Amino acid sequence: MTARKDIEAITERIRQRSRNSRDIYLERIDNAASRGANRAVLSCGNLAHGFAACAPTEKTALAGDKVPNLGIITSYNDMLSAHQPYETFPQLIKQAAHEAGGIAQVAGGVPAMCDGVTQGQPGMELSLFSRDVIAMATAIGLSHNMFDAAVYLGICDKIVPGLAIAALTFGHLPAVFIPAGPMTTGIPNDEKARVRQLYAEGKVGRAELLEAESKSYHSPGTCTFYGTANSNQMLMEIMGLHTPGASFVNPNTPLRDALTREAAKRALAITAMGNAYTPVGRMIDERSVVNGIVGLHATGGSTNHTIHLIAMAHAAGIQITWQDISDLSEATPLLARVYPNGLADVNHFHAAGGLGFLIRELLDAGLLHEDVQTVWGEGLRPYAVEARLGPDGSVIREAAPKVSGDEKVLTTFAKPFQPTGGLRVLAGNIGHAIIKTSAVKPERRLIEAPAIVLDSQQALNDAFKAGQLDRDFVAVIRFQGPKANGMPELHKLTTILGVLQDRGHKVALVTDGRMSGASGKVPAAIHVTPEALEGGVIGRIRDGDMIRLDADNGSLEVLAPASELAVRKVPDIDLSANEHGFGRELFAGFRQMVARADHGASAFGVA
Fold first, then answer.
1. CB of 295 within 8 A of CB of 358?
2. What residues bind [4Fe-4S] cluster, as annotated (predicted)?
């Protein structure tokens, strides 16, 4: 099937806008491929260094340049649950490569930080910039030019976007992304949220809070709510960078290991040394990117990807905008309800039919481009499947179920949870912003209330504890943008505002910071751009100004005369406390160079 006319029109708009940059990009990767990627161009001294640690038989094979060599980029560490399972993956990949007649080497490691650990801490101000560090670290690993293809072991918030930027920068190499899978289900997410709110109100202590959190985040694997990490996995599959059905299989299971071995063999099968050469830079095109955005909307995915997708596409010479994302939201219905958009977690989503069911529904409705290239071959239809373990330990695939296993979690195109996607772009005299509407009840999507202006989430917390917030208001948290302090996620605000909303108050958030995929039931206009430090209107709002946030109509306004706003000055506040400690001094250059949120927030320049 071909994509619907409105989807194709947006895709064509992106294609035309990107024509020059895409042509330049494709010429570059074609030149890289034609020069002889890998060992053929290395001197004897170069090559000897490159395979010094290999077994004798591997040295012989690599010296002859007759077998494909697979580079492994890994985000393994054993402090973070999502990345701990990757400890055993390199050995599985090497064994699979040997069985396929190839060789695999760990090309390099990349840092992997967890926003869940750094929430509300100074280290959170490094989080967004870690994406670009990951891209650069990957480039260093691949710079040795020893490889015919690469596999990427990454799963969480900034790791996958950083790896994707690097993979597309080395676009002449085939690339397969290998997930580790979500942890098994712990306590219900709504119970975790309930205990958090009780703690914020002083009704339970730290011991009770820690017990609830530990029962939620309890084992190896990705957190099970539908935040940025699991949105990453959806994106990699719907964009064709995973093997079909790979995203949400739990770690340390026979099927997970079988999928990992299969992915390694597939990466070796699509090198330039075979007949199915699939360089990732040509494989990922405007249609693939649109498919990713549609998937994000259909699942109510992470707001972070309104930043990351722009940066990822830019790495392939493709220019997308928030307007493209907004227009695709209008065309895409919400088909999944996974916490915080519902009570279920990703394990429930997977059991209900998962991505195979979702992809089939979107394909049949003409909302996805079926005629794309993937690591699996031609077309996206082979991804409308469920992966299972075969009798011999290999992966087998069956057509996705025709009926959802749980219609409260996963529904059909004919009966969507809402007619439009889970994300919207807001525009008005404050600037542009993103809001996640899929978890916000319709009656709470229009808020008009006086502003309470603060310069940190801690200031809001202090005001809450002092009993100063028992009223209707819009919290304006400014100086949280990329240039000010690295644009941290502001999750401390979620619980406080949720408590006040439950008390019957009309509350909302407006900030130039981030909230991520965990943005919940409180209307939150985030990623406001221009940010306060760049002179944005968000920095000119004063206490008591009336703010009108209308999520359904896509508007964000401060109800003050334009003449008055024009003469107001953005306060000159002291940001020096954000510039030192926990490594923040090392990122001064990033804060100076970073692009705006709507341009991808990249330290590599404006997208």
1. yes
2. 156, 223
| CA pair distance 111, 118, nearest whole angstrom | 14
Long-range pairs, 572-577, Cβ under 8 A, ≥24? 573/455, 573/479, 575/479, 575/484, 575/485, 575/533
Start-to-end CA distance of the chain, whole Å, equals: 32
- CA distances (Å), 348 to each of 217, 249, 286, 406, in order? 16, 12, 31, 8
The residue among 89, 148, 375 whose CA lies nearest residue 241 is 375
Euclidean distance between CA atoms 218 and 184, whole angstroms: 8
Q: What is the pLDDT of residue 215?
A: 81
223 labeled part of a ligand binding site: yes
Question: Do residues 82 and 180 make contact, with C-beta atoms less than 8 angstroms apart?
Answer: yes
What is the 3 state secondary structure string of 469-502?
CCCCEEEEECCCCHHHHCCCECCHHHHHHHHHHH
pLDDT of residue 519: 61
| DSSP structural state of residue 55 | -
Of 446, 427, 462, 448, nearest in space to 545 by CA: 448
Q: Where are the domains of the chain?
A: 5-184+219-399, 423-575
- Amino acid 47: pLDDT: 60
Nearest to 150 by CA among 130, 111, 131, 178: 178
H-only helix segments in 540-594: 562-567, 588-593
Q: Left, alpha or beta for 64 (phi > 0: left; psi -120 to 50: alpha)?
A: alpha
Given the DSSP bridges, would you call strands 373-374 and 431-436 parallel, antiparallel or unpaired? Answer: unpaired
Give the pLDDT confidence score for residue 515 in this predicted structure.
83
434 three-class SS: strand
Structure tokens at 299: 């699942």
Output the pLDDT for position 43.
Answer: 63
Residue 30, both tokens: 């074609």
Place of tokens 């692009």: 595
Q: Look up residue 466 and give its two tokens.
A: 């002092």
Distance between CA atoms of 21 and 318, rounded to whole angstroms?
Answer: 7
Enumerate residue ranges in the chain where pLDDT < 50: none
Q: Which of 379, 382, 347 is nearest to 243 (CA)?
A: 382
Bridge partner list, 453: 476
How far is residue 134's CA from residue 415's CA, in Å, rounded to a whole number? 40
Q: Which CATH architecture has domain 423-575?
A: 3-Layer(bba) Sandwich (3.50)
Would you say the C-alpha torsion 88, 91, 95, 96 has a positive or negative sign?
positive
The contacts found for 165-168 with CB under 8 angstroms, 24 or more apart, are: 165/131, 165/132, 165/135, 165/311, 165/312, 165/315, 166/73, 166/134, 166/135, 166/136, 166/138, 166/139, 166/142, 166/315, 167/138, 167/280, 168/280, 168/281, 168/284, 168/312, 168/315, 168/316
pLDDT (tens digit per residue) in 379-419 = 999 999 999 999 999 999 999 999 999 999 999 999 999 99
pLDDT of residue 336: 96
Per-residue pLDDT at 59:
56
User: What are phi and psi for residue 477, nearest 5 degrees?
Assistant: -105, 110
Contact 541, 554 (CB under 8 A): no
What are the tokens at 320? 């997308």
Query: pTM value?
Result: 0.94
On whether 44 is known to bind a ligand per the annotation, the reply is no
